Amino acid sequence: MYPIDDFLNAFNVFLPKVIRDFSCQNDLQQALLYATLNGGKRTRPVLCFIFGSMVNKNIPIHNILHVASAVELIHCYSLVHDDLPAMDNDDLRRGLPTTHKKYTEATAILVGDSLQTMAFDILSSDVLNCSSDTKIKLIQILSKASGAMGMVSGQFLDMNLDSQFDKNNLLHIKQMHQQKTGALITAACVMGAVIGDIKNQAIQDKAKIIGGLIGELFQIQDDILDMTQSTQTLGKTAGKDLTNNKPTITAFMGLDNARFYADDLVQKL
Amino acid sequence: MYPIDDFLNAFNVFLPKVIRDFSCQNDLQQALLYATLNGGKRTRPVLCFIFGSMVNKNIPIHNILHVASAVELIHCYSLVHDDLPAMDNDDLRRGLPTTHKKYTEATAILVGDSLQTMAFDILSSDVLNCSSDTKIKLIQILSKASGAMGMVSGQFLDMNLDSQFDKNNLLHIKQMHQQKTGALITAACVMGAVIGDIKNQAIQDKAKIIGGLIGELFQIQDDILDMTQSTQTLGKTAGKDLTNNKPTITAFMGLDNARFYADDLVQKL
Questions:
Q1: A62 with A56: CB under 8 angstroms?
Q2: Which of B22, B32, B109 is nearest residue A86 as measured by Cβ atoms?
Q3: Which residues from B are below 8 Å from A183, CB to CB?
Q4: Min Cα–Cα distance to chain B from A100, Å
Q5: How many other C-beta atoms lie within 10 A of the C-beta of residue A197?
């Protein structure tokens, strides 16, 4: 297996190239680059890479870079829109001004919109070297995970916009987390397995379960860090969840219980 | 050929069904329905239908409804986002409160985001009865037309966000129109031809030319109506282009010349 660090280096060279290939040469392109090249951890691309390599040791790096970048672009679009004043109203992201602070709100809305389109552009592109059946499968997984049955629905619940949502109900909070964070992380794992070998259904099923656990852990850890770390360490405004009255695991069960919960998930993984 | 009115009736039954199938049952779904079922003219679905039927007289209505709804969902998402306070700041759309006025800005952002995803969900769906090659071709056309090389880039220019854009240059205005309006209208025509028969490249080429002319005419007509009609007739706030200092054809060449220009396009068509 290709070392993870080498993959990450290749990914961080590949992503700006993709953005230049799939957008017009104007100021929008600059804003698209700003929104995506700000030192993200690339968790989803790495998961995609790990599962792809697990299924197929000789997976073409070209293919995994394409698929991983599609997932990451969806993640980046969601951050840009979530940071908007009408949403979480955040001025900082990874220690830098958020896209709407650096440019304008209109630019940030359009940046998010086009990053989303670009993800589907990449997965349907002729330069992705696999069968149309595989491309369609990847697009199905990504659209289900990121739309009104997944990530966007989770953000809708997280914003307290749904009248049926009860933030004192653990099942509701867990469902919200699963949609908001878990769905895309799971998609990253499963899409890696699919581009590795679409016929290996057993690994895709495992990727789904493992991805679900990682997603849950990821969100709880995010809730804990928001309560315990400084703005400087986080690179985004600390304590926002409490200020914004967000339905977090920590608010529901307290910090200590949330830590036990996270430890339990680590054991399961 | 199926009569256009019958197609329109079928389409207006089909669209809410699609939204219920591709979204979770919560308040987001209600907002998605609100944003899409407000008496739109369904220009793009009709064009898609006409070109599909022209290529293939026995085209399955099921398929054309799916493809047409994907295009229409992209159009609806763009309207919801374009109406936002940070964009064109419009309170009325088709005589009704815009989505952010009816609900909240956060809801409108998320509605737009999920309508876009839904379009790609539909085109990759197993219920669309055609080959994966055809689905991929449709997704390629739609993503190219609607993203940072098409519709979103056009809106970026229209919002005067690009430092290179010169609203006193007719070529710039025409390019902006082509991207903002022409690209998706052209896509509707070409996608109809593709779902009719992917192998008939000649009709796809013609659909591209005719779609481009219709798109140009459509935008000029929109500019003229904004200057000459009442808010009540338009169903949206009249005179907004002038107030917002928009780079329109009417502002560039005056109302009379714009009318000559539109007549000339009709002749060409």
A1: no
A2: B109
A3: none
A4: 10
A5: 16
Task: Please check the confidence at residue A1 and state whether its pLDDT lies above 70.
Answer: no
B247 pLDDT higher than 90: no
Residues of B in contact with A146 (CB under 8 A): 117
Q: Measured between alpha carbons, how far is A215 from A180 in angstroms, rounded to an integer?
A: 9
Q: What is the mean pLDDT of residues B110-127?
A: 98
How far, CA to CA in Å, does B234 sit from each of A127, B180, B239?
44, 20, 10
Amino acid at B267: Q
A161 vs B107: CB contact, 8 Å cut-off?
yes
Tokens representing B174 are 């025409």
Report residue B92: phi and psi, to 5°: -125, 140
B139 interaction partners in chain A (CB closer than 8 Å):
120, 123-124, 139
What pLDDT score was predicted for residue B205?
95
Do residue A162 and residue B118 have CB atoms under 8 angstroms apart? no
Residue pair A236/A90 in contact by the 8 Å Cβ criterion? yes
Beta-sheet strands, E only, within chain A: 92-93, 96-97
- Residue A139: per-residue pLDDT: 98
Q: What is the pLDDT of residues A199-234, one digit of tens each?
A: 999 999 999 999 999 999 998 888 888 888 888 887
Nearest-CA neighbor of B73 among B113, B105, B101? B113
Rg of chain A on CA atoms, in Å = 18
The closest of A175, A161, A147, A156 to A77, measured between CA atoms, is: A147
Cα–Cα distance measured from residue B33 to residue B28, given in angstroms and rounded to the nearest whole number: 9
Residues on chain A touching B109 (C-beta within 8 angstroms): 81, 84, 86-87, 109
**Do B114 and A148 lie within an 8 Å CB cutoff?**
yes
pLDDT of B8-64, one tens digit each? Answer: 999 999 999 999 999 988 899 999 999 999 888 999 999 999 999 999 988 999 999
ipTM of this complex prediction, to 2 decimal places:
0.95
User: Which residues of chain A lie closer than 8 angstroms to B104, CB-CB?
Assistant: 86, 161
What distance in Å separates the CA atoms of residue B139 and residue B141, rounded to the nearest whole number? 5
B257, HSE (Cβ side, Cα atoms, 13 Å)? 8
> 0.80 exceeded by the pTM?
yes
Q: Is the pLDDT of residue A156 over 90?
A: yes
- A216 with A267: CB under 8 angstroms? no
Q: How much is the average pLDDT of B208-226?
A: 91
Nearest residue, CB atoms, A149 vs list B22, B106, B146: B22
Task: List the one residue out of A109, A89, A145, A140 whose CA is nearest residue B89.
Answer: A109
Phi, psi of A198, rounded to the nearest 5 degrees: -60, -25
Do the Cβ atoms of B24 and A153 come within 8 Å? yes
Q: How many angstroms away from the CA of A106 is the closest CA of chain B?
A: 5
Distance CA A46, CA A72 (A): 10
C-alpha–C-alpha distance, residues B114 and A149, integer Å: 9
Nearest to B79 by CA among B93, B95, B91: B93
